[in-house]
Design goal:
single chain; 451 residues; alpha+beta; Uridine Diphospho-n-acetylenolpyruvylglucosamine Reductase, domain 2; Uridine Diphospho-n-acetylenolpyruvylglucosamine Reductase, domain 3; Alpha-Beta Plaits; 5-stranded antiparallel beta sheet; 16 helices; binds flavin-adenine dinucleotide
């Protein structure tokens, strides 16, 4: 609850940009998890000062503040589970490309794809590419340390962050570096805020590294008889001396759902989507080598994109999987485990065995090159307890094998009860201590990451 006096102060601070009407409260009550909790109000700041004043008020009157980008998060990070104020960063969308320095200066509400498009106009490239890039914001990407298909070659969001401005839970503002390519002055606090899921500060500006835009990208879709053959092909491909920019795995259910969603016909036991980039000669020679290497694993067919249109078609298929599988069952329990690459075939087998054991539908796809699999348990309401048991068994198996319970979606609400098992007691306590130090009254995104 936001106390009346605090509401009065917020109204003064935001005017009409503070909303308490039911349609707004409903619209800002959930994210891609579909977990719902109503906020007491939603504010749309346009500058850092408003954010700082808000957090000072939250400390004074003790109410929760939940930063929010576009609400595409898959772990409930933007859901206001303890009520309070949702702080939507959607109106802070400044963007400037410093071409000579190869740096983008952005505000957090900027949509990921807009940054990529603008960088390309300057012959530059911002590689992090979550499949949600048409909707997700840079602030959300920073707070989740988002990944995506291209991370295999280019790394995740944190690899492109040169500087940040952050409003701390106390309302103080800090600046951590700017657009320098190198800077080792002091502790690496950037790393602390990137991936902190809106619990340690509100990111208000970022300086992001850009690199030269590769002149050409081409992709190959290889279809296999079954999942095991595709996963074995993926692991052996990476020992062929080539680092593709993406190596994605799609199982037969994902393929069926995505092709019916797009109104096309593709049937296979499983597929790999492999992208390479570079100049024309290098793309051609990489493709030839990939084809030779894959042939050893007997794919049923291989199709290479020949032009931009076909290239876009391949990736449209990949990006449509998530919305397409939503139509399979009313509830999608979506996990994003990571295992060492050599264990991918074993992990895929284990996931399907869980589906069989608990009699639930399992759909698997993801960033196979990174060992990062999106495991989706698709269920009806009455099957949910069985799916939750399957998730628990999955996480315990992943931890035992030296993997991670999340590669890019974060902990949020959905994985909070497994974080202690993943980190061990000491690391868990240290992380909780950092949260307490920066946010002693627990006003910033409470109820997330830690139980
Ligand atoms: C179809 C689909 C595909 C996806 N594919 C991928 C993928 O390939 N890779 C991937 O990594 N993720 C993926 N995601 C997950 C999601 O898109 C990412 O986590 C994304 O980074 C969230 O951005 P957002 O703007 O929607 O953030 P939100 O969901 O609004 O918020 C996410 C978290 O960030 C915090 N936050 C937001 N803005 C700020 C800020 N300015 N300062 C501090 N904290 C802030 C919120 O409090 C919350 O904890 C996908 C999601 C969907 C729906």
């Amino acid at each position: 609850m936001i106390p009346e006096q605090a509401k009065k102060a917020l109204k003064k601070l935001f005017g009409k940009a503070l909303r308490e009407d039911p349609p707004h409260l409903l619209a800002y009550s959930t994210d891609a998890t579909r977990i719902e909790a109503r906020p007491d109000a939603v504010a749309f700041p346009v500058n850092e000062r408003q954010i700082s004043e808000t957090l000072k008020l939250a400390n004074k009157y003790k109410f929760p503040v939940v930063p929010r980008g576009s609400g595409t998060g898959f772990s409930g990070g933007a859901v206001p589970i303890e009520g309070g104020l949702v702080l939507s960063l959607s109106r802070m969308r400044y963007l400037k490309i410093h071409g000579e320095d190869m740096v983008a200066e952005v505000e957090p509400g900027l949509i990921t794809e807009e940054l990529q498009r603008e960088a390309e106009k300057h012959g530059l490239f911002y590689p992090p590419d979550p499949a949600s890039l048409k909707n997700s914001t840079i602030g959300g990407n920073l707070a989740e340390n988002a990944g995506g298909p291209r991370c295999l070659k280019y790394g995740v969001t944190k690899n492109y962050v040169l500087g940040l401005r952050v409003v701390l839970p106390s309302g103080e503002i800090i600046e951590l570096g700017r657009g320098l390519q190198k800077n080792v002055a002091g502790y690496d606090l950037l790393g602390l805020f990137i991936g902190s899921e809106g619990t340690l500060g509100v990111i208000t500006r970022a300086w992001l590294k850009l690199i030269p835009l590769p002149p050409l990208r081409r992709s190959l879709r290889a279809d296999f008889r079954n999942v095991r053959e595709a996963s074995l092909a993926a692991t052996s491909l990476l020992s062929c001396g080539i680092l593709p920019s993406a190596l994605e795995f799609v199982d037969s259910e994902s393929l069926k759902a995505a092709s019916s969603y797009l109104g096309i016909e593709i049937k296979a036991g499983a597929s790999l989507i492999i992208q390479v980039d570079g100049d024309e000669l290098s793309v051609k020679s990489q493709m030839e080598r990939i084809k030779r290497c894959l042939k050893e694993n007997s794919p049923v067919s291989m199709v290479v994109s020949e032009d931009e249109e076909q290239e876009e078609e391949v990736w449209k298929l990949r990006r449509s999987i998530s919305p397409a599988i939503n139509r399979l069952k009313p509830i999608k329990i979506n996990e994003d485990i990571v295992v060492p690459r050599s264990l991918i075939p074993q992990a895929v087998d284990f996931v399907y065995s869980l589906g069989k054991k608990h009699s639930i539908m399992v759909v698997v796809f993801g960033h196979m090159g990174d060992g990062n699999l999106h495991v989706n348990f698709m269920v009806e309401e009455e099957e949910k307890p069985r799916a939750e048991e399957a998730v628990k068994e999955l996480f315990l198996w992943v931890i035992k094998k030296g993997g991670a319970i999340s590669g890019e979606h974060g902990i949020g609400i959905t994985k909070a009860s497994f974080l202690r098992a993943q980190l061990g007691e000491e690391s868990y306590r240290l992380m909780k201590g950092i949260k307490r130090l920066l946010d002693p009254k627990n006003i910033l995104n409470p109820g997330k990451i830690f139980l």
